[in-house]
């Protein structure tokens, strides 16, 4: 992909921008079914691309707003939105890749750290040409990758979340999760690899040696009151005091706090665990599709759209020039000190071991709760 060919494609877009035909945003920006998600060129010569967006809350706002603005200035491009969770949507992407490798379910989109790693291993995603994207240089270097497979747009984080009515002294360390003062008061969502990791890290291990973490949680399983299966259940048990302490996403926690839940998010003294959200291009596409995707991703990486993503997803913007939304600026989770103090996580290790770790959690820890 050369700059010349990309400019030629975009010159065509600019040339057709004078057209008066309007786009039906209810179709172009709404959810689409897997059957209609595959890329195609319409009879009018438009290049149709499908963007994967997270399903739930306000996570679809920024992608839809971006699509509307982008199509208004690029009349030869139609953007559709496929909204789904990564866990469900990625399974469908794999099935489509097996059935028709040259007609991917989606063309590009938003993917969490774990799906990004899995997708790289599955050869689901293709390399991005950072040099051809002017905004890539402004992305925090921790979320620009040596292999070029994806690039960060925002960073959520894992820290401590607690009920301030039930726990009057703020927990300041990851070790509070296994402090006997909170025995039987801890909840987790399904398998919390990060709790095992931090137990290992604080006891001489790490991602490459999780044994100290496994031994600790096997011994301290009674700290855990229950494992929840949905966000509504999670919010309920935290808010009513059934299990007033957990480790969870700062973004989700803040959304709950904003609705009036009696919760507080704390950045542990050892540092929060960053969870980048990456923009990825899917393999198996034409040159023209990939050129358009590069331009689209570059625009989404701009300070304006990174800041909008941060605001709607409640995340730290990955673009270092993006202005932090006013609604987040005063929160400890979004301070520069928090970002500078993030734990350094190799998600390649997490992704490759996640299935095995989950089985061990069920056998060694969950069975003892």
Automatic annotation (TrEMBL):
GO biological process, one term: thiamine transport
Source organism superkingdom: Bacteria
GO CC annotation terms, alphabetical: outer membrane-bounded periplasmic space
InterPro entries hit by this protein: TAT_signal
UniProt keyword Hydrolase present: no
Gene Ontology terms, MF aspect: thiamine binding; thiamine pyrophosphate binding
Keywords associated with the record: Signal
Name of the protein this chain belongs to: Extracellular solute-binding protein
């Amino acid at each position: 992909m050369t700059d010349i060919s990309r400019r030629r494609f975009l010159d065509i877009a600019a040339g057709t921008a004078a057209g008066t035909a309007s786009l039906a945003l209810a179709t172009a920006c709404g959810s689409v079914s897997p059957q209609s998600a595959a890329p195609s060129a319409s009879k009018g010569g438009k290049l149709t691309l499908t963007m994967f967006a997270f399903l739930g809350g306000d996570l679809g706002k920024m992608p839809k707003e971006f699509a509307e603005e982008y199509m208004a200035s690029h009349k030869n491009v139609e953007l559709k939105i496929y909204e789904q969770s990564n866990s469900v949507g990625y399974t469908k992407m794999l099935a489509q890749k097996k059935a028709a490798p040259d007609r991917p379910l989606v063309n590009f989109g938003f993917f969490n750290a774990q799906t990004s790693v899995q997708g790289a291993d599955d050869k689901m995603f293709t390399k991005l040409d950072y040099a051809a994207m002017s905004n890539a240089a402004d992305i925090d270097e921790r979320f620009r990758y040596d292999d070029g497979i994806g690039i960060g747009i925002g960073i959520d984080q894992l820290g401590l979340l607690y009920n301030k009515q039930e726990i009057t002294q703020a927990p300041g360390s990851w070790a509070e999760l296994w402090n006997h003062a909170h025995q039987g008061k801890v909840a987790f969502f399904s398998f919390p690899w990060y709790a095992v990791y931090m137990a290992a890290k604080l006891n001489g291990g790490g991602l490459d040696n999780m044994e100290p973490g496994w031994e600790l949680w096997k011994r301290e399983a009674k700290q855990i009151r229950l494992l929840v299966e949905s966000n509504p259940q999670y919010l309920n048990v935290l808010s009513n005091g059934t299990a007033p302490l957990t480790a969870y996403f700062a973004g989700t926690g803040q959304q709950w706090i904003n609705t009036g839940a009696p919760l507080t998010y704390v950045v542990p003294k050892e540092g929060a665990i960053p969870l980048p959200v990456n923009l990825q291009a899917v393999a198996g596409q034409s040159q023209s599709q990939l050129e358009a995707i590069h331009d689209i991703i570059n625009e989404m990486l701009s300070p304006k759209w990174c800041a909008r993503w941060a605001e709607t997803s409640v995340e730290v913007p990955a673009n270092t020039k993006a202005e932090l939304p006013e609604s987040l600026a005063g929160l400890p989770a979004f301070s520069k000190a928090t970002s500078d103090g993030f734990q350094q996580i190799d998600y390649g290790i997490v992704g490759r071991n996640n299935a095995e770790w989950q089985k061990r959690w069920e056998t060694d820890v969950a069975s003892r709760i």
